[in-house]
Every structure is written in structure tokens, then in C-alpha cells.
Amino acid sequence: MGCRDVHAATVLAFLSGTASVAGLLAAVLLPNWRQMRLYTFNKNERNVTVYTGLWIKCARFDGSRDCVIYDPQWYTAVDQLDLRVLQFALPLSMATAVSALFLCLIGMCNTAFVSSVPNVKLARCLVNSAGCHLVAGLLFLLACAICLTPSVWVIFYNSYLNRKYEPVFSFDVSVFIAIASAGGLFFTSIMLFLWYCACKSSPSPFWQPLYPHAPSMHSYTAQPYSARSRLSAIEIDIPVVTHAS
């Protein structure tokens, strides 16, 4: 299969990147980054679990799904450093991944629909499909680093809170979703890099990140006429005069 064909690797990378962005969106919106479980020794009362997210905080009694305390303004008063960092890191990671998806889609459309010879006037400033996939892979890798680092830090910061206060803190499902999404972004970048390395061995200019010159511009050298050709042309141009006997 040629480099210009839409490989299964690029399609799989696009689907993986889309699923990873969806996972990041779920991790951002869910109020399940940290749990704080409060125990009571009064038999007439129930234990309370406080669910802390990036934007809201919810307190529930054991066995109930309703929030007895719901704080929608929690994002303005976050007092935990790891969650404050995640408020900026995860949206930035999502924006970077969406930009990479857009570039990946451009590259796929370019390989599927572009003509075999680029436009001469635009060849010097266009980025071809392989260049789009290469830049998209770098952006996916950057989005993975931005997402993974603060998400893993939540685990260590949770241990710090348990040592500083009481062992009532535990990280919740959003941490696993964010880490899995970061793994999906890393897998996507690897797939795009493998596609680029596979196309690099192709003799076609379409694997190159930038066109160094217009592929359709060639230098033609005028072939010299032979002596016989020049003589023939002269003989044709000279009128033939005949004398009457």
C-alpha cells in the first residue's frame, strides 16, 4: 500500500485520539477526583462522603445518591494544589489534542483526495499529509505529558494529605480515567510516528514534511537540431528555380 493511501494506522490513530479526548472531557466534568470519608460514632447518624471534583463538591450520606451539600462555586475556592493545577492542565491538554485531531484529519483528507502532483504555485508553502501527521503526533505527545503529570501527582498528593491530616482521603475514578486517556494519547502519537517512519522509505515526495521544491517543475533542455535537420529546413525555405530548355 502506497504512502498516499489512508492506512489503517492513521484511521486507528484518529479513533484513538477521539476516544482519549472524550475520556479527558469526562474526567474534567466528573466530581470524582478525591473522596473524603467522614465517620461518626453516633449510631443515629450516617457516615458522610465528600466527593471533590475540579469544579464542584458534593457531600452524600452513605446509601444515598442525593447531595446534602452541593457547592457549584467550588472551582473558585479550591484549596488543594493538585486540583488547582488540574483545572488548567486538563483543558490545555484537551485543546492540544483537539488541534492534533484537526491536523490528523487534514492529513487523512490530503492522502485520500489530493492530486498526485501538488499545485506548482502552492507547493512551496503547503504542508503535506505526512507533515500533518508528524506535527499531530508531536501535539498528541505534548497533550499526554500535560495530562499525565498532574494526574499522577494526585496519587502522591493524596498520600501527603493523609499524612498531614487523617487517613480519610482517597483518589477516585476520575484519576484512572485521566491516566487511561493520557495512555490513549501516547498510543495515538506512536501510531502516527510509525506511519511517518513507514512512509519515509517511500520514494514519493509526499512523505516529506515540506516540499523543498515544486515536484511538477522540471528543467527541460532543448535538444539541438542535427546538421541534417538544419540543412533540411534551409532546403525547404529556398525556392527551387528551374530553367526552361
TrEMBL record:
Coiled-coil region: none
GO annotation, cellular component aspect: bicellular tight junction; plasma membrane
Domain of life: Eukaryota
Subcellular location: Cell junction, Tight junction; Membrane
Keywords: Cell junction, Membrane, Tight junction, Transmembrane, Transmembrane helix
UniProt membrane topology term: Multi-pass membrane protein
Transmembrane domains' residue ranges: 6-30, 88-114, 134-156, 168-196
InterPro entries, per the entry: Claudin12, Claudin_CS
Family in the record: Belongs to the claudin family.
UniProt name for this protein: CLD12 protein
Organism: Nothoprocta pentlandii
Gene: Cldn12
